[in-house]
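Dear all,

This email documents one entry for the complex benchmark we are building for the journal club exercise. For each entry we list the sequence lines for every component of the assembly. Then comes the predicted three-dimensional structure of the complex as a token string, followed by one or two observations. Please use this as the template for your own entries, and keep the labels exactly as they appear.
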Amino acid sequence: MMHASVEAVLNGLKVAVFMVDRDHQILFRNAASGQLFGVGLRGRKLDDFISSKKCLKAVDRVLAGKTQVSVDIKLQLVVPTSFSVTVVRMNPEAPLEDAKAIVSLEDVTHIREAEQMRSDFVANVSHELRSPLTALYGFIETLQGPAKDDANARERFLGLMETEAQRMARLIDDLLSLSKLQAAERVAPDDLVAIGPVLRRVIASLEPITEREKSTVLLELEESLPLVHGDLDELTQVFSNLIENAAKYGQAGTAIKVRAWVAENGLHVCVTDQGDGISPKHITRLTERFYRIDKGRSRSKGGTGLGLAIVKHILMRHRGTLEISSEPGVGSEFCVVLPVANLEELS
Ligand SMILES: Nc1ncnc2c1ncn2[C@@H]1O[C@H](COP(=O)(O)OP(=O)(O)OP(=O)(O)O)[C@@H](O)[C@H]1O
Ligand SMILES: [Mg+2]
């Protein structure tokens, strides 16, 4: 009933297309509709494939005389899938009893997910900035009022205000580095970096924190490690966050092991702590922005929850990987694998 070339065009579309009559009997469906909703003997009516009442109602409105109706629906296919559905009257000039409708369904799951992530992110950022700001307002009010002439209180409050201001500054720095990293993700860094000295420097610079947390860091470097292509500052940031986390979330008084060695698939650097460990349901989410297992604990240590998100993006840019393994009650291990620079290729 349809011209062969029209049928070929419809079959070439990624959008699922159904043509139905007044009883929702399918007169034509394109190839994409088969891929999305299955083919064959399951049924001949639209309702056998699409369970959404909202969508079927839109079809009825068009069959009752409307020229076009668009709706957004979510269907439970293999996974929950969001569709933007457009229903149009195929033959507006024909009498209503002969009305036919074209139903096209575009999979917009990725767009919806991205929209959701963006709005969650904005909500998170606002919330994270709002809490130090609220604290600052509180201190300002107290200093203007009850503690106006109290030199001791003034001293103490100014100290607390400085901590809150530092937290805001850190959050903004972290957000900026994340957005810079995301912009540069496609370009791999091409400086040559020696990991040994980076690790030594990071460990030295974290001494105030490891001392505060009463932990020691043991460095085990394999001899003559190869160079990696990388960005010195970014790799410093990676190991700094991993070792800092091990100190903050490890068990006070225990040792943190940092080992580096080379294997066939690249240069390995593993940071192992003897902390409480992390249960599997958290492990997969740790690199999400603002994800913290224990918000209060992380906040009391000055964390923003962006550290591992930054680590993930830096490693993506370096074509490296991060593997997290943990045994609750025993400790956690964060392993980075970086591709080794091929010096022969360079010369
Ligand atoms: N070694 C570890 N042991 C147990 N939990 C950890 C470990 N490393 C990270 N975590 C958990 O993962 C969360 C996210 O870590 P991440 O480094 O992204 O943020 P943060 O340390 O809280 O803040 P920031 O890195 O910005 O200071 C932490 O809040 C903590 O709950
Ligand atoms: Mg951290």
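Observations: The first strand starts at residue 16 and ends at 20. Residues 110-184 form a domain with the Helix Hairpins fold (CATH 1.10.287.130).
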